[in-house]
Amino acid sequence: MRVAGFKRPFFTTYTTSLWIRFLRFSLQSHKRLEDDLVKLALTPPQFYVLATIGYAGRLPFGEIGAKMMVTVSNLTGIVDRLEEKKLVVRKRDDNDRRVVHVVLTDKGAKLYKSTIPEFEKSCGQIFTGLSKTEQKELSAILRKLNLTTTTN
Questions:
Q1: What predicted TM-score, i.e. pTM, was given to this entire model?
Q2: CA distances from 133 to 23, 26, 129 (A)
């Protein structure tokens, strides 16, 4: 039995092909960063929590979830594992006991500071095929897309 093969998928719109290219790039670059983070015994979500808190300081669960676009229930598991590694602690808000902040420990702050240069190096390697001008253009386009998708 012979199965018909196609060299590439057939899409009726250019935007669909564009989205496929964007998705492929996103998955490949995420995999590359994931491979680099494995060396640090961190998953991408764990790194993103560390980076978010490291940059912004102590944050309530809800704000971290919003910045990462994950639910609080998903975030709980990530923070649990970071606590087991002694990288973060949970602290109740002094004024509102319902609010729980996530704070870097000294060990977490040290790891955050040491991983940022490695993370930036990895990101730089992903975009080496683009000139600085092209990187700025891509940044502007992505910012515009983010604005339009959040307002629609």
A1: 0.76
A2: 22, 20, 12
